[in-house]
Amino acid sequence: MKTTSRLRYFIYLSILFVGCTTGKNALQKGDYDAAVSKAVDRLRSSPQNKEAMDVLPQAFDLAIKTHLRKIDEAKVSADALKWETILYNYQRINQLSDEVNSCPSCLNLVPNPPKYVKAAEDAKYQAAEARYLLGERALRENNRQSAKTAYNHFLKAESLYPSLKGIKDKIEDAYWAAVLKVVVQPAIINSNMYKLSNDYFQQQVNNYLANYRGNTFVRFYSEAEANKQKIRADQLLELHFDDFVVGQTYVKERVEKLKRDSVEIGESRRGKIYGTVTATYSIFEKQVSSSGLLNYTMVDLNTNKVLRNQKLAGTYVWVDSWASFKGDERALDKQQYALTRKREMLPPPPANLFVEFTKPIYTQLVDQINSFYSRY
């Protein structure tokens, strides 16, 4: 009984598999394009397959009629993008005909499959023209959002018909009308105690903004660039270092009592004498801490409205350690003894410490800029 059930199951799977590979199931479901492709594939490998031979002419005829019907419906519709629908259906007809033409045995079943090459080319031009007109209409609305819409229409028009007259100029015009132009002021440092330079931090910021790729429609300029190019900026990004401390020093001492047993401490007539050695071990750790805040402000220059104002904190701690001991050095291990040979080091100069605590601030600033301008 079990053997019979299994046999029926395998027969069912075999029938289902054959139906799938010949396109019969796709034909029954009304997916005529898929039915044609499956039947053609089957007939390439098995030119005398009866089921595929039955499926192909039926599926091809229904597929062509379906695409032509959709083309006729689109032509009388009010859809501004109807030519893209028309183009798609002509392309599908041409693709199906190419599939049949690539299979010798299929041509006996579907002789002279139709091709609509000129109609497809005309539809391409009409589709591109429609996108061009929509782009011009959007561009006349004279705002950033509509300019972005225009830019996308012009790009689509170019992809449909690259030689369309004036399309490259329109793409350029729409792009610059859509771009948000942001001027970035140099980071300001107010310090009466230190003569510090923000060159490193500023260079990092400049490099990042010059290569910014977070949003196609946002461009950053230095004040010098904006003036030279006569840019009418939309926003201003102000950077200002304040509330910073460079070189706060802390020294800590930790004392340990060390001892080690079974150490050779002498020799007698009977042999070597072993005993316990001890030492007082002092470890010194010096920390030089530097920290500060960068205040950044984003201002809308059209309304003078502050869009964001925030402080970003950064800290850098330079650490040095050394040690000394009193007693028997044999109580120390190799690492402890090596530390006693070190001498106290001078910390880096204030300018270097300033650079170090600005590094985490730079990372935060980049994250803030990416987050804020992603929505534009």
Task: Please characterize this protein's 3D structure.
With 376 residues, this protein is α/β, with parallel strands linked by helices. Helix content is 51%, strand content 26%. The protein has helices at residues 2-22, 24-28, 32-45, 50-75, 82-101, 104-107, 117-139, 144-160, 167-178, 199-210, 223-229, 334-340, 350-373, and strands at residues 180-184, 188-189, 218-222, 235-268, 271-300, 305-327. Strands 1, 2, 3, 4, 5 and 6 form a 6-stranded mixed beta sheet that branches. A hairpin with a 2-residue loop joins strand 4 (235-268) and strand 5 (271-300). Helix 8 (144-160) packs antiparallel against helix 9 (167-178). The radius of gyration is 39 Å and the shape is elongated. Mean pLDDT is 91; it is low at 1-5 and 7-19.
List the keywords.
376 residues; alpha/beta; 6-stranded mixed β-sheet; 51% helix; 26% strand; elongated
User: Helix/strand-derived class?
Assistant: alpha/beta
Contiguous runs where pLDDT drops below 50 for at least 5 residues: 1-5, 7-19
Q: What percent of residues are in strands?
A: 25-35%
Helical content class: 40-55%
Tally of extended strands? 6
Shape: elongated
Order of helices and strands: HHHHHHHHHEEHEHEEEHH
Question: Gyration radius, to the nearest Å?
Answer: 39 Å
Q: What is the mean pLDDT?
A: 91
* Largest sheet composition: 6 strands, mixed
The number of distinct helices, counting runs of at least 4 residues, comes to 13
Distance between the termini: 70 Å
